[in-house]
Fold each of these.
Amino acid sequence: MHEQESPSILYRVGRKLVRVVCGLLFHRVRVLHSEALPAASEGPALLVVGQPSTLLGAALLAACFDRPVQCLVESRAGGLPGSRLRRALARCLNMVFYEGDASAWQKAWLACQETIENGGVVTVFLEHAVSNPQGAAQLLEAVATLAESMANRSPVARRLPVVPVHLLLPVARLAASEAFVHLGEPLLMPVAAAPADDRPRLASVLAEALRRNVFAPQAADTQRFLNDLAALFRHRLEEEWSRRNVWRQDIDSFGLSGFVKDWAERSNQMEPVRLIDLCQALNDYREAERRWSLWRLQVEAAAWLKSGWRRAWVAAESLVGLPVALWGLVNHLFAGVVLKLARQWPRRGVELQARNWMFLGLAIALCDALQVAVVAQKGGRATAGFYAATLPVAGLYLLRYARLIPRTRLLWFFWSLDAGQADLERRQEAFVERFNAARNAWAGALGVVC
């Protein structure tokens, strides 16, 4: 058995640069079940990634492992801009580019046979996995066929392990900043003595392993997303009918098409990050809608908001009384800290006895007296007298202002209802545009006009 040659200086430099870039993009890259990739002394390996190729995904795989990884990448793969950058990356990381047809893929595979014969690692991406299941199945059969032929004719690749791989590269709109690479259980190719029927069986086992994407949302979560999506479009249709005098059907009879459900299922298996992104966007919209509905209910329940002079009074007092309340807060902050440390600060919903109120009053009076003494020593008696006169007034008004804050908050809700409604409409349109773009991209790959 030949051991794999150490990576070239150019490959090591390129891998180091990619690791720096990945650290800036993703903050952290986690490799799960990394022991599934055999060591260099154990021979070659074939990695099969269950999603279409991207330059970023190929570069990430090269950066994750100490062993050199040669990737087969489609020429039109996205992920990094610029033809010069693509060529430089391909040269540094020893990538093999090919056109999208099957014959070009086989030629590219033949170019990688030398890597496997020398005990190296080759990565194949499942092109058109989302848009063309039949083509993806044919590609998996081709992988099984070529890998079996390599295993049967090369002593180094006698038991060539085929490792299913899943990637999760977060998009910019997701809060997560970590990228994940998961290696599945290696599948060993049969030796020459194995019957011919083993090849399609291994291809189907590999397809099933790639179908079980560890990053895919659960079936219940996917169904919940589809239900929320259907409810959103029914609501949009109902609003459109309400603005026009048209004949209406039963809105509950409308649902998502089978095309959309099939798109969600395939995306969940092969590119779950796109579905997760849409789920997050829809959840954000529904949360914003829930907050706005809560504001509206609170505004409608407040009868005083229907009076214009009461709204004006609350607004004026909220502005004019704010400096006085801040003065009371700053000057009674010491007393509050003392009471908090003594665990005697009044808690919400707890009835205090008379002796507790006496203790609170005495503690606040002592703290105020201490502060007045400090001011008298620093600024004189006149300043201390003026300061002492403001303390009880500011303290009592602080309690008044604390009771005013809920009304100020309701007044702000009242003024921001229209702006919140406009923001909800913008969020809804933005989500619908993103959903339509994802659906149309899949339909375009299938050659279907939506």
Amino acid sequence: MAVTDISMLRERRKKKKAVKFLKKLVIVLIVAAAVTAIALTKDLWYPKLDGILTRIPVPNNTAELAEGHFPLSIEGGASYQLKPLDNSIAIVDDSHFFVHNDDGKLIFSAQHTFANPIITTGNKKALIYDLGGKSFGLYSKYKNIYSKSTDEPILLARLGSNDTAAVVTGSDKYPSVLMVYDANGKNIFNYRSVSRIIDVTFNSDNSGCYITNIGVSGGFIVSKMLYYRFDHIDYDALGNPQPVWETENLETLALSVRLYGENNIIMFGDTICAYYDTNGNFINSYEYKRRLVDYSSNGNIAAMTFINDERRSSELVTIDCSSGAVNEKTLDYEVLNLQVSGDTVYMQTSFGIESCTASGEPISSVELDTEYEDFLRMDKYIYLLGYDEINRIDYN
């Protein structure tokens, strides 16, 4: 009897296996038939589906922090600065200058003695100066090119794309004095200003610069730009260099002056944003409706964020300076920092990174688990600046 029961059990198992095999076979045949049908009718359905697919954002960004050499630890806390430098990142803290590749590997480091170090970068070099001090130096990502000192305290410095350096100091006789040095550290231009120089911007081929001054007129703070060339300088009877052109006073406190297009200029002020053509002629302006939080520009695109104190939300304004098109968009979150890269606007919020088109249409977003002080978009990465460390995430 026991033998008979085992035989029957084996027979049942064989039948179950056969049924399972038949089910799998049927499924495989159905899938194969469906694939064949899809392939044969591709010309009918693919064009329509392709149009839909191109409109669906691809979730290829990740909030996963990079490993390996990241995070980069910073000594001294939040007093450091980070800038892009020749496909690498340059960091200055209270005592050192560091260069890391995009994987976080240390390429170069040097100690400095600046009390208040400030870094500004061009394409392949970094200019580090002591704000309020009298020293500055030019660095590549592998070495120190030169170091110099000034007679008076340094107020600001800028670096051109060909390593031409502009250094502005105070003076006993003038509110500001500008000295321009070539890539080898040779002094090639000097200008003594009767007004306070607030910014210096090199033209596209670094053959001249736009000097932005601020002053007071009619009880209001005003800003104006003067354009000088280094290769052709006219002097007045007192030996002062004469500008090629200068703009009218603009009733605002200039914050930054940048180029767009072919030597056209955009001025970000504290109350208004104005843009000019290559000859300094006023083109148009955008007057702020709320308090300015941050601003950025790249190419022809300028972007600004404003805070709505009542609603605790932000407003994004983008301007296509080439066409004059202005887009205003109310956001349901608060923007902390802003950067324009290519034709995309990147915004840091309290919960992550948002990106949108120049017209304000959302592209993608990434949530972050940790709060950061600032960020830098470079190539396919976003570098996150924490209090005492720097992290990196992918953001294609």
